[in-house]
Amino acid sequence: MSGVSLTSLPGDDDENGGERPREFIQSLERGLAIIRAFGPHAPEQTVSQLAASTRLTRATARRFLITLMELGYLESDGRIFRLTPKVLQLGYSFLSGLRFPDVALPHLERLVAEVDESSEASVLDGDEIVYLARVPSSAALTIAINVGARMPAHATSMGKVLLASLTDAELEAYLERASLRPILPHTVTDAAELRAQLDSVRQAGYALVDQELEEGLIAVAAPVRDRDGRVTGAINLSTHVMRRSAESVRSELVRPLLRTAQLIEADLAGVA
Question: How many angstroms separate the Cα of 252 from the Cα of each of 81, 109, 115, 157, 257?
């Protein structure tokens, strides 16, 4: 087995402080790294490109590519490799085991019908949020989001709500490892400032983001708790500065959003 380590790949977390358990299978890690190397920024790649992005030798990368092709997760014209729809089965296995998006969706639909603004639901995965459900408004002026899309937690309303639900130790670990990159001029990139903002989110019970992720986008989010009181996800409403100001969002959208979160929590508590 090659001695090349993938522990420093962007987005990878080593929960064991750099020491892997004896049962750890590095070849599986490398195969998953190949799949994760594809995305909107690189939907098609050559062996050389994949080897560079995963820090593997070309020979090692090629062996994994051939294996993934045989399993049906990749296809190639002989030089360029791309993912196949079969990869969606990996995500579906996770989504199908979640109650949250199924329970939340009808409530989000009623919320959007009431306020005519787009609504989404997400969970926290590492330093990013993953969108599990989306109901667009008739205006469709806000950022286009697909189920399964990922966004940096520090720049999103739902991300701030979910980060605010972390324990002090979990939050400190996040702030130490996360890249608080400046997406827009308004994006909070200072750890101390973000920590203070999350304290305010805990007290208010919701988070409002004004043009931190996309120019013109304003979003407000609320946590959703399970029957044990743990935050299991978040829901939001998003709009555009052409439609509402931040103050309008606070005065007109926070109340129906919080009410919807409570209805989702009630249904989650009643699901066996």
Answer: 48, 17, 9, 17, 9
